[in-house]
Write a structure and sequence with these properties.
Blueprint: H1 3-14, E1 17-21, H2 31-42, E2 49-52, H3 57-67, E3 74-77, E4 80-83, H4 85-94, H5 96-102
Parallel strand pairs: 1-2
Antiparallel strand pairs: 1-3, 3-4
């Protein structure tokens, strides 16, 4: 495992809800990242951790390899890859995301 993959692994496994995004929860830098934050908040999750990939080019590229997923944002819950903003939205609309996040 490369250094960047190790760093990503530690972030993913070190936080119950981890969102890799463009910008921050307070200032998303793209619409998809903003929507991902809104979905988490709509699920009642306030204590999620974010990582701004715009501040770290290694992680920005490495996260795509880590999950074998080409786009950002990427949501991880309990160390498992959930998906990007479209999948989050679909799961939210079906109630599946709320169930996943309710398991503490």
């Amino acid at each position: 495992m490369s250094d960047v993959q190790q760093r990503i692994d530690e972030l993913v496994k070190g936080h119950r809800v981890m969102l890799f995004m463009k910008g921050t929860a307070q200032f998303p830098m793209c619409g998809f990242s903003g929507r991902a934050v809104q979905v988490l908040k709509a699920c009642g999750v306030d204590d999620f951790k974010t990582f701004n990939v715009l501040e770290d080019e290694e992680v920005r590229q490495g996260i795509k390899d880590y999950a074998q997923w080409p786009t950002i944002p990427q949501l991880y819950v309990d160390g498992e890859f959930v998906g990007g903003s479209d999948i989050m939205m679909e799961m939210y609309q079906s109630g599946e995301l709320q169930q996943l996040l309710a398991k503490v």
